[in-house]
Amino acid sequence: MASLPNFKGKIPVTIEADILKGSFGKAVNKEVQKEYGNYKVINKVGYNPKTRQVEGSTPFYVTAVNQVIMPEGLRTSTVDDIKLIRQIKLLDLKGCYEDIACVIRGLEGNNEYFAKKLMEGKQKFPVTINLSDLKLIKDDQSGYGLAFKLKDTAKIMQRDLAEYKGTSALSRLYLGRNLDLGSYDCNLGNSNSGGRVVIVSGEATKNLDDSIIQKLKTEKALNIYSPREIEKVLNNQGIVGSLQKQIIKALEAYKQK
To answer: How much is the pTM?
Structure first.
């Protein structure tokens, strides 16, 4: 019997994620309210004992959640996370909304105070910044009593990643009720019971690119594919954005060893 060519199955792509709920969600909300509960943009979000879920969302609340959960190796979902969750239908998010990031288009217009706080003199526009890359600071001048500050490790993405875009200097970027990514809401304080906070295991996503790289190495993909072809392979697996760039960069570095 003639030998068969090597079988190449699809690389499994997964992510460990869930909405903020249960005893964990209740405890996280308690910590957030303890620190920032005097601010309306925080206390309008809360834990509902009937549904056992944290209901409501503002960019301020999500950023505060990050400060509570990051020491546990967790974070709120990024744009790349939510695209993957949406694609593989990991969570049923239809009918809800989730704040993920902010989009900055310039230093003049709605929310220009926040845009200048984050980006004045630093960058071309538009840019997208995940809320997990921000710190929450108290600021009496902001209009909300709170403002944002870039983390030292923040990744600034040089484009507006929303599918439906707005015009404000700074807008919240969120997954809408119909699972579309929008950045046209300039009111940073809006919240309703349809809001949810999506939590992701930072350790799981950190290891995801390592497992994919190892899979490609095992299949000798470095000897088969050019960078452009590897990009196509990753696109077919739904691996896009910054995660794709990290993987391609790591593969190129490995190839040069």
So the answer is: 0.77
